[in-house]
Design a protein that fits this description.
Elements lengths: L12 E6 L2 E6 L51 H4 L2 H19 L1 H7 L13 H20 L2
Antiparallel strand pairs: 1-2
Helix pairs in contact: 2-4
Length: 145
């Protein structure tokens, strides 16, 4: 197959490099609104202000569900609360979240307010929860689970 010809349905981009950097260039006309790439995030977390009302895994409304008894930070919708995958994911971060939410000295050192405070401190605890989740993803990948 010639370099400029492509099989139908193949990836419609090619990598290009310039002195300014790298990029991708469409190799054929694409209809407006076409989905050209879909990729799930490695990790995502709710903003602190959404913790009491949304599922920590799928982000669907879950205000009627109780928070995790161990960490008090996470809440899961009815579907995710019985999901083995969700339980595995949360198990890895639960202990760290319990410490983040409950340890007054740690919160003070991090400038996050008193222990037990659920008041959003900008996005500081959101970023910390994302870091915890990323470390948990990394640990699972290293274990092969």
């Amino acid at each position: 197959m010639a370099e400029n010809q492509e099989a139908e349905g193949s990836f419609p981009f090619k990598l290009f490099e310039t002195p300014a950097g790298h990029g991708y260039l469409a190799t054929r006309d694409l209809p407006k609104g076409s989905v050209v790439l879909r990729c799930a995030p490695i990790a995502a977390v709710l903003h602190d202000r959404e913790l009491a009302s949304h599922c920590s895994r799928c982000f669907e409304p879950a205000a009627d569900q109780p928070p995790c008894q161990s960490c008090g930070a996470a809440r899961f919708c009815a579907k995710c609360s019985v999901s083995p995958a969700a339980q595995t994911e949360h198990r890895a971060e639960c202990r760290a979240l319990a410490r983040l939410w409950g340890d007054g000295r740690l919160r003070a050192r991090l400038g996050l307010g008193p222990a037990g405070s659920r008041k959003a401190q900008g996005s500081a605890t959101s970023v910390l929860r994302l870091a915890v989740r990323l470390l948990a993803v990394r640990a699972r990948a290293q274990r092969g689970t």
